[in-house]
Amino acid sequence: MPRPPFYNPTADQLQRTASCSERIRQEILRHGGSMGFDRYMQLALHDPAVGYYHGDHAVIGKEGDFVTVPETSDHLAYCLAHACAGLIRDNPGHSILEIGAGTGQLALDMIRYLLAWEQLPRKYCIHETSETMRSAQRMRFESQAPEIIPVVEWLPEMPAELDCAIVIANEVLDALPVKCFAVDPCQLQERCVTTTGDGKLDWCLQAPCSELDTALESLMASLPEPLAGPYCSEICLVLENVLANWSGCCRQCVMFLIDYGYPCSEYYHPQRSMGTLRSYLKHQVSSNPFDFPGLQDITVDVDFSSLARAAGRQAIQVLSFGSLRNFMLANGLLDWRPSGKDPAACAAETARLKQLTLGSALGERFQVMVLGKEADYEADRFTMRDMRARL
Ligand SMILES: C[S@@+](CC[C@H](N)C(=O)[O-])C[C@H]1O[C@@H](n2cnc3c(N)ncnc32)[C@H](O)[C@@H]1O
């Protein structure tokens, strides 16, 4: 197994990645020598026994593999709390349902703001599939803000009925399993996963399965020009099921979906010929998703046009779409102040805010799509610049 010089796994970690690889290899062998990349991603990230999000290694933060926006400062929490407070003021029956809460930092900061503004939701539910993450969240709340624990309800499964909810998913869609495909000058092929003679995992090319074939046909029809090979990319086929699941527990909901990504025409731009699939290990990015299965994060950008179409098929409306920067500016950012008393920490927080807002790539790389089920709001409630026309 290749071992980049920056990474020295412990014996336990080596054991874990070996178990994860073996689990995947066995399934490949049982199924005639290959598996779709979506199945590989599901096992490598989300398998309860060997998946990345279920291990006891640090995932998010300085000691982990990557940092999310809520870990760097509470300005996203402030702006999301601002948007939620407005909805709760209109209807105090709202619950908040956060999907995939990671370390729990976003929940913690949002609840603190909502408490201070006396706009707590009926319930703050966290739907988190990883038991490890659920206990990390609880530990963070116990050590930093025990007073908020009674407000939070953890849900390994989706709740049965919330009636009226605000659903929040920050950097969760980018971890959903995707199919990978390649275009060469004359044909479209599915990039699957196989094992090599020496037992390693590697890519192999196959005729696309029928579900991918149908999806690619409609993708190609929607692009301004056909994709010319050599070109490879990825496509998420589970968006509709995921939206149905997240919105299924409520009669009415507003969803804030925040992630890195693009509208379809940029996602599948001819120049993005290597796709967006990448892995993170100790803050180093790699294009090889097979390096350390179960120990490294695997992620892709989100195709927001496809997300909007999936919402439409579920009778969910796109209420607004735009950059994170423009979402935050429409939701109180100019009133945000660093919360710490230490001047150096305040200066660092302000610097991070500038990174997100002042013409840097970061605030534009992250998008916020607001969806509404049985909920109708004007786009300017959620963004300074609505970009739905680009979807
Ligand atoms: C990249 S982390 C983002 C964490 C957090 N939202 C943040 O911004 O810091 C992804 C989180 O989503 C969880 N997750 C991934 N897929 C999920 C799903 N389908 N349902 C619920 N949680 C999921 C993971 O366990 C992890 O906690």
Features:
single chain, 391 residues, alpha/beta, Rossmann fold, 2 domains, 8-stranded mixed β-sheet, 5-stranded antiparallel β-sheet, 13 helices, globular, binds S-adenosylmethionine
Bound molecules: S-adenosylmethionine
Question: How many E-type strands?
Answer: 16
The structural domain count equals 2
The outline comes out as globular
Top-tier CATH class of the largest domain: Alpha Beta
Write the element-wise H/E pattern from the N-terminal end onward: HEHHHEHEHEEEEEHEHEHEEEEHEHHHE
Helix- and strand-based class?
A: alpha/beta
What do the pLDDT scores average to?
Answer: 92
The number of distinct helices, counting runs of at least 4 residues, comes to 13
Q: Percentage of helical residues?
A: 25-40%
Biggest beta-sheet profile: 8 strands, mixed
CATH architecture term of the largest domain:
3-Layer(aba) Sandwich
CATH topology value of the largest domain: Rossmann fold
Tell me what portion of residues adopts beta-strand conformation: 15-25%
Low-pLDDT windows of residues? none
The Rg value, from CA coordinates, equals 21 Å
Task: Reconstruct the topology from this structure.
Layout: H1 11-30, E1 35-36, H2 37-46, H3 69-72, H4 75-90, E2 95-99, H5 105-116, E3 124-127, H6 131-144, E4 152-155, E5 163-170, E6 179-184, E7 187-195, E8 201-206, H7 210-222, E9 231-235, H8 239-247, E10 250-262, H9 264-267, E11 278-281, E12 284-286, E13 297-299, E14 302-303, H10 304-313, E15 317-323, H11 324-330, H12 343-357, H13 361-365, E16 366-373
Parallel strand pairs: 2-3, 2-5, 3-4, 5-10, 10-14
Antiparallel strand pairs: 1-7, 6-7, 6-9, 7-8, 10-16, 11-12, 11-13, 15-16
